[in-house]
Structure formats: structure tokens, C-alpha cells
Write a structure and sequence with these properties.
The protein has nine helices and no strands. By secondary structure, the protein is mainly alpha-helical.
Length: 237
């Protein structure tokens, strides 16, 4: 399996040279930006996206059950990435595909010290697993996350550290883990989130608590009883 994409006429290799060739023509500062973005920036971006989705969602959450399900889905997104990386360990050991710069000359390698196997890309796997997990929880934020994951895959090839098929394999692995294990994860995480929601100490992690003046207790779209009507009801009683 180590001989995967050895031939220079292989479309995988040709696309590698085409994308990585952009790094040779780009200014030095731009390559440094792409190096940081591809190695750290996009991973941080998808994590921050999950946190932002949680922060805005907990303020808009309706019922306790709805809030618990939403938070459970968000928690599954980074957990799915961790599971996908663990699944990738035996895959890498089985395929044993060297990094492209170890097999092909003339590549512009932006990150040094990569000595592990190439297939599949951990970065592509992690970002896509988080993005798909986020999509399960919130489609709008999930689509943004998927866009970031696709850009991450492009960056890995641009940097000369992965073949295009390494990235595609990472996308497939991250998507499969996030989707296929989602029902099991939700069945386990949702009861935990419900229990946390009922806790006076950590319930704010699931749903925003009403303020002291009670103004935050009104949920958008619900009808409240006016003070006058309540007073009339008390008098009638």
C-alpha cells in the first residue's frame, strides 16, 4: 500500500504539483500566512465557531429538552473529531504512505519536520468532523464550518505536506464518523445535558438563566399574561 500515487502521471500527483506550484509563485509573506492558517488557524477557527454557536444558542434556547439536545449535538462535534483521529491511527499504519515531499522532487514545502505517514490527513479529518458535527446541530454554522474544512484541505496540499487524496480521505473519514456515530452519541450525551440543565450550578452551560428582573424569562414567540389580567384573575378568585 505504500506505493500509492508513486507515478508522476498520476492525476493525484499532477494536482499536487499544480496546487503546490501556487506557493512557489506567491510572495514569501503570503506563504507564511498560509502556513499558519493551514497548520493552526483553521483548526482554531472551527473550534471558535462551535463555541460561538453554543454561546448564541444557549441564549435563544426554548424548552429544556430542546436546549439539552442542541448542546449535546455541539459537544459531539469535537468528540467526533477525536474519535476520527483515533480511527485514523490504524489506517495510517496500514497504508504507510510517505509524505509527498519524500517521494517527489521540486515541491515547495512550507512546514518541516513532518515524518509521519501522509494518508489520511489529520487536519482534514478533524476540521471536517467538527464541521459535520456542527451541521447536525446548526445548519447555518455547519455550512460555514464545512467551508473552513474545505479550505483546510486546500491549504494542506498548498503547503506540500499532503496529496489531494489524503485530504479527500480525511474529509470522508471525518464525515463518516460524525454522521454514523451521531445517533449513539446523542443517546449518551443528551441525558447528561438534561441533568446539567437542571443543576443550579452548571445549568447555565445548557440554557441562559433568567435575570433577576425576569426580563430574560420571556422566550421569543411565547405569549405572556398582562399584569392587569393577572390582577383581575386574582380578584375574581
Amino acid at each position: 500500500m505504500a506505493g500509492l500515487a508513486q507515478s508522476g502521471s498520476n492525476p493525484d500527483v499532477e494536482l499536487l504539483y499544480d496546487i503546490n506550484g501556487l506557493a512557489k509563485d506567491a510572495p514569501h509573506w503570503f506563504d507564511r500566512v498560509m502556513e499558519y492558517v493551514g497548520e493552526y488557524g483553521l483548526l482554531l477557527a472551527v473550534v471558535l465557531l462551535v463555541l460561538w454557536c453554543w454561546w448564541t444558542g444557549r441564549r435563544r434556547a426554548g424548552s429544556a429538552e430542546e436546549a439539552a439536545s442542541s448542546v449535546a449535538a455541539l459537544v459531539w462535534a469535537p468528540l467526533a473529531a477525536g474519535v476520527a483521529v483515533l480511527v485514523n491511527v490504524p489506517i495510517r499504519g496500514f497504508v504507510e504512505r510517505p509524505r509527498p515531499f519524500m517521494e517527489h522532487d521540486g515541491l515547495e514545502v512550507l512546514v518541516t519536520g513532518k515524518t509521519d505517514y501522509s494518508f489520511v490527513s489529520d487536519h482534514a479529518t478533524i476540521t471536517m468532523a467538527i464541521a459535520v458535527g456542527l451541521f447536525v446541530a446548526n445548519r447555518k454554522y455547519g455550512l460555514v464550518g464545512i467551508g473552513l474544512a474545505l479550505f483546510e484541505g486546500f491549504c494542506r496540499v498548498y503547503m506540500g505536506v499532503h496529496y489531494p487524496t489524503d485530504v479527500v480521505g480525511g474529509f470522508a473519514l471525518g464525515t463518516a464518523v460524525a454522521l454514523l456515530l451521531s445517533p449513539v452519541a446523542m443517546a449518551l450525551l443528551t441525558p447528561v445535558a438534561k441533568a446539567m440543565e437542571r443543576s443550579p450550578r452548571v445549568g447555565w452551560l445548557i440554557r441562559k438563566r433568567p435575570s433577576a428582573d425576569g426580563r430574560d424569562a420571556v422566550i421569543a414567540g411565547t405569549r405572556t399574561e398582562s399584569a392587569g389580567a393577572a390582577e383581575e384573575r386574582d380578584l375574581a378568585a
